[in-house]
Each structure stands twice: as structure tokens, then as C-alpha cells.
Amino acid sequence: MNTIFRNLIDSKYIYSKHVLIRWKKTQAFIKKYDANSGLDIGDRTPFTEELETFFNCSFDNTVVDLDEGKLKGKYDIVTAFEIIEHLYNPLHLLNEISNVLKKGGKLYLSTPKGKPQYLWSEHHFHEMSDKSLRALIERAGFSIIRTEEIRIQPLLFYFTGIRPILRFIFEKHLLMELIHQ
Prior knowledge:
The protein is α/β, with parallel strands linked by helices. It is built from six helices and six strands. Helices cover about 30% and strands about 25% of the residues. β3 (about 75-80), α4 and β4 form a beta-alpha-beta unit.
């Protein structure tokens, strides 16, 4: 399998400042409610363990190819943080999530907001405009409950050169709470 668009989830990545900032802001965004089961799309990380504590339930993680594989089980909550921009076929993943999400369950999703391609991460297959992302979510049968735009870099990062200044102008990440219609 081609892994050019996949991040290596190692301790260097997990404990980098921007990831820790993103996790903190994501946890502030999600709403605590009673859940009996959760699925965290992607590799298991320390944030998966924080989600288990937050929702007081165990979380599974995916082990299938997210562009083609089938998800199994039924879950009250599914999280897909910083995943869809790495996929060739994000609609497939959203359709699979809709199949495993229990009625009334929620999907929490985060992804970079579309920006000029020269600012994309080398590991992103695509970054979608707000219009494209909303169309994708609607096509998969989800409704947006709420969204929030966040920055994930430490503030001083943006003052270290021309490219970081451009990222300050253009780079935002979207946090979304979704429910299947």
C-alpha cells in the first residue's frame, strides 16, 4: 500500500507541540455525554486513552485500509481527527462510519480547512474548501451540529518566516460535531 500520504504516528509526532495543542483544543470542543462504546479512526494514541476517560467507555481503533475497508461493530461515538485529508476516498470512510454509528450517535471530525496548495502538508492528499467539505458530509448523510475553527501551532511559530506568516493567514483547522440523518 502506498503510504506517502500517511503520517508516521510515533512519539516524536505524538508529543510535538502542534499535536498537543490540537488535542487540548479538541477536548475543549467535544461534549461529554454518556457513551457505552467508541471508535477512534486511525492509530491508537494517548489521546484515545484521554477519550476513554472523558466518555467513560472503551474505544476501539481501526486496523483496515480506510479507503476501501469495511468497519465493523456499533458505536455511540466515533472520532476521526486529522484523517480525511490523508485519504484518497474520504466519502468511503464517512459512509462506513455511518454504518457503524448507532442511532443518535455522534461523529467528531477534524481536518485542515482548505488553503492554497503550496501550504499543504506533504502528507495530505487533499484539503477541502468549506463548500467541498460540507458537500462531502451531506453526501454521506451527516448533518453538522456545530463547528469551530482553531489554530494548532504555537503563536511564536507564525513569526519564524514568510511561509509561517502565510500559514497564520490561511491555516485553520475545523472541528466538527456531526450526527447521521
